[in-house]
Amino acid sequence: MFESPTETLSPDARRVFDRAISCFTRLVGVPRWAAVAPGRVNLIGEHVDYNDGFVLPIAIDRTCVAIGSPALDARKCRVHALDKDESSLIDMTKTPPVSSNRGSWLSYIAGVIAMYQRELGVARISPMDIAVASSVPLGGGLSSSASLELAIATLIEQAASIEPDPRRKALLCQRAEHEFAGVPCGIMDQFISAMGERDSALLIDCASAQGHTIPMPGQEHAVVMVINTNVRHELSSGEYASRRATCERAIRTLGVGRWRDATLDILEISANRLDEEERRCARHVITEIARTLDAATALRSGLVGLPQFGRLMDQSHASLRDDYRVSCSELDAVVEIARAVPGVFGARMTGGGFGGCVIALVRPDAVEALTNAVIEQYRELFGRTPTVFTTTASPGARSIRLSRSKL
What we know:
Elements: E1 2-5, H1 11-27, E2 33-44, E3 54-70, E4 76-81, E5 86-91, H2 105-120, E6 128-134, H3 144-159, H4 166-181, H5 188-195, E7 200-205, E8 210-215, E9 223-228, H6 239-254, H7 264-270, H8 276-300, H9 306-322, H10 329-339, E10 344-350, E11 357-362, H11 367-382, E12 387-391, E13 398-399, E14 402-405
Helix pairs in contact: 2-3, 2-4, 3-4, 3-5, 4-5, 6-8, 8-9, 10-11
């Protein structure tokens, strides 16, 4: 006997689901619940989510799947991460539940469990045996952590018969990442993984945690390409927290309540009261918030807005490279290679930086040329092969209803 999903999954999600089901049935037995949650790319609006700015991400068709059933040991959750080939235990007799070191993959799962225990009461959250598998690249800036958190949260909702509330779920997962993984992230990653929509980007106001859908151009007009440098980044290493602390100091000095109320004129007036790092970070945040709103306007205008959208992507990367200083030589090289290919509207790094991925918005007839140029030139420069794929705006986290079938 095996469990199959009753609804249609994307080809990627189906492959991940099949891997997770196979692992679970081998290690545990018959599953009862399943959930899927997507990774994301941020089209523009980088490092402004934790500064209460505006961001414009899409959920992508790379996913994390979590499979579960009531635990064989009533005191512990047994968790197997298929992609790491690691199994660990979470002690549910402790409050909060005990996991492993802060920032490890298991701490993300334990953190989500702890948040639901805190929100709903320990008695509502029973131990589960869980298997997780993912196609979201680890450390690639596509939010593998948020997709894991949202998949686990959705699994918990099924097991506890909790009415789904995507916004609450995103906020709980964000707090889990703060407290258990040690990453003071903004709301963007969890929000888009919870609330992504097919064929649409989401303009998120990170101050109010409200989102507005914006239709993406059809695949016959423009394609989102992801180029993974395969240089890993570690957000919990301290650079992320350092940038956030710098922004907090700068906004206090500027004397405005919110970054969206700051302007370059205000920055100029206060420049002598900021150190060099604070001035650079402030300039990035102020201009990136403005670029994101302009990019949303360009996207709303349809095909005529695509060239402007591409120019804003280019400007965003320059700001992240020169002012916020979260890029690296590999990301910069890929961006330059992409910009030289005819049919590329724009390109920029996406995610936390210091490695990870570049995204490009390109005409469909330029996909092959860009793929070949990036692979060839990146190999020559760095001696390694990037991973290149196209993606589409996809639905957010959701449960997968299981139906038992005969082999």
